[in-house]
């Protein structure tokens, strides 16, 4: 979801490149979960095989929450603890 917050609508292959250490199978599962929760929209273009993912308004509304979680993590969790 963070990739979509930062980059806007994206194709699966572009999302996969941006998500480290995540298999395609797991990424597909997560995108389906996010779609089922109304956070992500999956759009298939009729004139091509292009499938694009984008955030819904509900998903985009989480931007402040994501930023706050990153700020907290940067402050309280060091790389050595992971």
Descriptive report:
54% of the residues lie in helices and 15% in strands. Strand 2 and strand 3 form a beta hairpin. The protein is α+β, with helices and mostly antiparallel strands. The longest helix is centred in the C-terminal third of the chain and has 14 residues. Strands 1-3-2 form a three-stranded antiparallel beta sheet. The two termini are 21 Å apart. It is globular and about 50 Å long. The protein is built from five helices and three strands; from the N terminus they run αβααββαα. The chain has one domain: Orthogonal Bundle (Arc Repressor Mutant, subunit A), CATH 1.10.10. 6% of the residues are buried. The model has no long low-confidence stretch (mean pLDDT 92). It comes from Lacticaseibacillus saniviri JCM 17471 = DSM 24301. Pfam families: HxlR. InterPro entries: HTH_HxlR, WH-like_DNA-bd_sf, WH_DNA-bd_sf.
